[in-house]
């Protein structure tokens, strides 16, 4: 019974055009995360898709290991690993068409790479040579967003604009479980639902926001349940099941493209590594929990499915491994080269047209660099770096 | 009198100790923020507080800065003294609405009936190789908002003393922690930790006759280094550490400038619309007839904070400071 149906309720006349949604049931998520691998549904999954997902997952795992190694060698300032979350990252990117847009958070390097962006360019932000290394238009990927949830309204706006223009473009916006507490998350959800914007929100619930477990983040039955309050469907999926993530996201993308409006998908997964290489995870969680999740590893789950069904054998596994090694060797080799730093770039893109003040500051820096070069016999950037933070 | 060994301590340790002592002294003091409990904060500045005082006194909040500061307002209205941690400079921006629309003006709009004793701790500034959004110097935004105290320590002793005074203050204090000084060590006597003047007093860190460097927070060590290097040129530079940007200590600053007749303001925030503009204007208004050269500013460039590999070009360093001092001399002769 709604307020308007209550006896003695105020009934405006004529009755309001707006009617509250009477039945939230179609919007409610399943009680259990949706699974495909190891269930009957797996029989219906496209074997080619599963193999493609597998190759990419193996690559993703290797990428995480390589990037983490690069932090130890001082080649990357910081790396937030997605080991354990590869299925979400990759299945999400593969659910999009080329014309669609991806709005990643700072953790989502793998999704961006799976979208076709050069891995070295993706790492610019984390290496520290520039804030964003790739052209957002080239692959329709927004810059990795460091402030949490702030990219979500952008995704809604872009999707809305595309629809206004008559393009059937969908935006996929990714956020962590912690990010769902930010005001921007709620505002984005509400706008998306009110505007029926073609956007899909993917929450990767990996258990923690740095040290804070989900139980201290939300009192909701699940993060997917949050969708109902805004008037959009919520879906709960096993984030370590690449086939399930791909299916649920593909459904949501199709639904959005067809004019059905937004969907909130919660992928339940786990962050195997620490928050970043700079974090000490032993302060807030025990090994037993991590080990339990290792038994539900996204790469192993898919590998088991493929091998039991005879879609993958030892040589297939070896091929995928080789492919990942080649990718890692290339990444290592290219990341071990010093990036070409152009200090004068600092002034180049602050405004479309530079200002007199910036031109003055540019001249000052140029003079400093020239003096430096003279002092260090032409070694410019390198010799000078020893000067530290000056 | 027993003599207590004066031991080296880091600024982070002094800050932790300040909160601990404040919590022990006053049950109304509550610490809250992202990861401040179990983890002890990403910089470990709240380390041990949850263990000692319980999670109700040192609380891991949901991840929402507007929510953190907004709920702190309500808590303060009910008699608590919240000490709020914003994880990094640029992640405090979602809380600006609360800070500017409510925290800063609550006393004024209620004619003194609703003071808000809230301390907002913000690690700020660059020089630690942080990626984008981890190195902003946002002090000018805070300074431009009447009703807020804006404080920033540069030494271990000040970190303790000023934070204790901030927490004890009946007004909101934005307490800016220079994150690149968190691990800097000074000799410090934790048995007599309060040897610091109240908020609002600047201090002369080094005496000199040639010119006065006016600075604060992360730029203090750079200025002291510049003053040392200047001796090779035959210059004796005076160095003033502001410690408090609001309220501003006109007296100490102007006395110092009058002694030397020349002043350079040094900070890593951008120069245009930055704190140095206000400081230079105040000095000019009060000391015009004592000045032998215009007040100069050595500041960060007027650009978004650069990526870590380029930040050294942005941050004011010894050479840029000495160049400015050289220009002061030239202006005087010309
Ligand atoms: C607005 C904002 N506040 C705080 C931070 C600092 N911070 C970076 S990551 C993080 C935790 C994020 O957790 P979650 O959203 O669950 O994503 P995950 O890292 O687990 O992928 C925090 C608090 C930030 N980046 N942005």
UniProtKB/TrEMBL annotation, chain A:
Protein name, per record: Pyruvate dehydrogenase (Acetyl-transferring) E1 component subunit alpha
Residue ranges of every copy of the Dehydrogenase E1 component domain listed in the record: 64-342
Region ranges (Disordered): 1-25, 367-390
Residue ranges of the TM segments: none
Protein's gene: pdhA
Keywords assigned by UniProt, alphabetized: Oxidoreductase, Pyruvate, Thiamine pyrophosphate
Domain of life: Bacteria
Essential cofactor(s): thiamine diphosphate
Gene Ontology terms describing biological process: branched-chain amino acid catabolic process
Organism name: Streptomyces dangxiongensis
GO MF term (any one): magnesium ion binding
Pfam assignment, any one: E1_dh
Family matches, as SUPFAM superfamilies: Thiamin diphosphate-binding fold (THDP-binding) (SSF52518)
Signal peptide bounds: none
PANTHER family: 2-OXOISOVALERATE DEHYDROGENASE SUBUNIT ALPHA, MITOCHONDRIAL (PTHR43380)
UniProtKB/TrEMBL annotation, chain B:
Pfam family, one: Transket_pyr
TM segment ranges: none
GO biological process, one term: response to nutrient
EC identifiers of the protein: 1.2.4.4
Keyword DNA-binding among UniProt keywords: no
Alphabetized InterPro entries for the sequence: THDP-binding, Transketo_C/PFOR_II, Transketolase-like_Pyr-bd, Transketolase_C
Cofactor or coenzyme needed: thiamine diphosphate
GO molecular-function terms, A-Z: branched-chain 2-oxo acid dehydrogenase activity; magnesium ion binding
Keywords: Oxidoreductase
Source species, domain of life: Bacteria
Domain Transketolase-like pyrimidine-binding, first and last residues per copy: 9-184
Main enzyme class: oxidoreductase
The protein's name: 3-methyl-2-oxobutanoate dehydrogenase (2-methylpropanoyl-transferring)
Originating organism: Streptomyces dangxiongensis
């Amino acid at each position: 019974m709604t307020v308007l149906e209550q006896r003695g309720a105020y009934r405006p006349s004529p009755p309001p055009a707006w009617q509250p949604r009477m039945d939230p049931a179609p919007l409610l998520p399943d009680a259990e995360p949706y699974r495909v691998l190891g269930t009957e549904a797996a029989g219906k999954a496209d074997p080619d898709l599963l193999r493609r997902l597998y190759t990419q997952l193996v690559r993703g795992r290797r990428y995480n290991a390589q990037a983490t190694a690069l932090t130890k060698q001082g080649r990357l300032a910081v790396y937030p690993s997605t080991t354990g979350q590869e299925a979400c990252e990759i299945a999400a990117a593969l659910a999009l068409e080329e014309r669609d847009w991806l709005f990643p958070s700072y953790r989502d390097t793998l999704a961006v790479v799976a979208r076709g962006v050069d891995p070295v360019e993706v790492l610019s932000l984390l290496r520290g040579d520039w804030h964003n290394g790739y052209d957002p238009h080239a692959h329709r990927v927004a810059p990795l967003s460091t402030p949490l949830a702030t990219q979500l309204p952008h995704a809604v706006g872009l999707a809305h604009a595309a629809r206004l223009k008559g393009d059937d473009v969908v935006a996929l916006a990714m956020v962590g479980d912690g990010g769902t507490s930010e005001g921007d998350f709620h505002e984005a959800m509400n706008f998306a639902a009110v505007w029926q914007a073609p956007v899909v929100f993917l929450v990767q619930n990996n258990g923690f926001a740095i040290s804070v477990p989900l139980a201290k983040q939300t009192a909701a039955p699940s993060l997917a349940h949050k969708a109902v309050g805004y008037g959009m469907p919520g879906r709960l999926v096993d984030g370590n099941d690449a086939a399930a993530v791909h299916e649920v996201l593909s459904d949501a993308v199709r639904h959005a493209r067809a004019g059905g409006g937004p969907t909130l998908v919660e992928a339940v997964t786990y962050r195997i590594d620490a928050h970043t290489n700079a974090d000490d995870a032993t302060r807030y969680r025990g090994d037993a929990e991590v080990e339990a999740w290792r038994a539900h590893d996204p790469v192993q789950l898919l590998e088991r499915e493929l091998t039991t069904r005879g879609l993958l054998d030892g040589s297939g596994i070896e091929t995928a491994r080789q492919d990942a090694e080649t990718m890692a060797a290339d990444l290592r080799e290219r990341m071990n080269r010093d990036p070409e730093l152009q200090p004068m770039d600092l002034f180049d893109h602050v405004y479309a047209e530079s200002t007199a003040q910036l031109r003055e500051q540019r001249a000052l820096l140029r003079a400093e660099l020239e003096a430096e070069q003279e002092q260090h016999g032409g070694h410019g950037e390198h010799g000078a770096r020893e000067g530290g933070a000056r | 009198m027993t003599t207590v060994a004066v031991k080296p301590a880091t600024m982070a340790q002094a800050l932790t100790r300040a909160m601990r002592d404040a919590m022990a002294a006053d049950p109304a003091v509550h610490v809250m923020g992202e990861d401040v409990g179990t983890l002890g904060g990403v910089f470990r500045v709240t380390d041990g507080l949850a263990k000692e005082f319980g999670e109700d006194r040192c609380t891991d909040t949901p991840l929402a800065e507007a929510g953190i500061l907004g709920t702190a307002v309500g808590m303060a209205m009910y008699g608590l003294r919240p000490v709020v941690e914003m994880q990094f400079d640029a992640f405090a921006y979602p809380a600006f609405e609360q800070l500017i629309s409510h925290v800063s003006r609550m006393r004024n709009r209620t004619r003194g009936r609703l003071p808000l004793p809230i301390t907002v701790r913000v690690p700020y500034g660059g020089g630690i190789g942080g990626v984008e959004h981890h190195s902003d110097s946002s002090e000018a935004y805070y300074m431009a908002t009447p009703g807020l105290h804006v404080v920033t320590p540069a030494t271990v002793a000040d970190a303790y003393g000023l934070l204790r005074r901030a927490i004890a203050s009946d007004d909101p204090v934005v307490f800016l922690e220079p994150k690149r000084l968190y691990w800097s060590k000074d000799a410090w006597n934790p048995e007599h930790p309060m040897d610091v003047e109240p908020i609002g007093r600047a201090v002369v860190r080094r005496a000199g006759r040639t010119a006065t460097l006016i600075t604060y927070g992360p730029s203090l060590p750079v200025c002291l280094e510049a003053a040392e290097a200047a001796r090779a040129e035959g210059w004796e530079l005076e160095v003033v550490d502001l410690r408090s940007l609001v309220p501003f200590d006109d007296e100490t600053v102007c006395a110092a400038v009058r002694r030397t007749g020349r002043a350079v303001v040094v900070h890593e925030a951008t120069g245009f619309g930055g704190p140095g503009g206000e400081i230079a204007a105040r000095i000019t208004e009060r000391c015009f007839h004592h000045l032998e050269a215009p007040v100069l500013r050595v500041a960060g460039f007027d650009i978004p904070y650069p990526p870590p590999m380029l930040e050294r070009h942005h941050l004011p360093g010894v050479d840029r400071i000495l160049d400015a001092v050289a220009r002061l001399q030239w202006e005087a002769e010309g």
